[in-house]
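Person: I keep going back and forth on a fold encoding question. Show me how you would write down a chain together with its backbone fold. Please set it down just below, with no commentary around it:
Helper:
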Amino acid sequence: VITSLGTGQTFVHNDARAATRFPIASTFKIFNSLIALEEKAVKTDEVLRWNGQTYDFPDWNRDQTLASAFKVSCVWCYQQLASRIGKTTYRRYLKNSGYGVLKPSFQTTTFWLDGSLQVSAQEQVTFLRKLYLRQLPFSDSSYNTLRGIMLAEQTPAHSLRAKTGWAMSAVPAVGWYVGYVETAADVWFFATNIMTRDAKDLPLRQMLTKEALTRK
């Protein structure tokens, strides 16, 4: 799904899939970061200490800040923040935002990974638009910090703010890429999800999305 802020023009590939909910995976780190900042569960410059456990992703095996944790999609960092935030707070924010569907019973540190929270590509784009327009109940400080850590690419012509996700709890697994592109003329929100066979398919999330954005 690609949609324009200025005109509302929207392009959809596979309407049925765009409306189908899938586990949100690490794309939840966008919303999760906002919640953590607003609830003061983390400070912008706080160091999240690595406990020494060795993970399959080398970038996780070190101390992190919120910005670095977002960039490398560090699961243990956000699980640490989730423990500080708690179930009640998550329920409140998700209900107030109308964001996806959360199962009544869920685990605080895994609900975005295990399929307890599901969202469609259409709902991702709706959320991103609210995020950009600051229509959600967060302070300017939280919005500004998130805007900084979401920056994935910047050129003289555009700024790309985005987050990947890999929902391995789905069968088949689902790869996500969501965010928005700012140009001088407009802002374009996008949400892609694809079936993935294994980790070798993951680069297709960004590749296919960027190709679609370039063409449109």
Notes: The radius of gyration is 16 Å. DSSP finds eight helices and nine strands in the chain. The beta strands are 2-4, 10-11, 22-23, 101-102, 117-119, 151-154, 158-167, 173-183, 187-196. The longest strand covers residues 173-183.
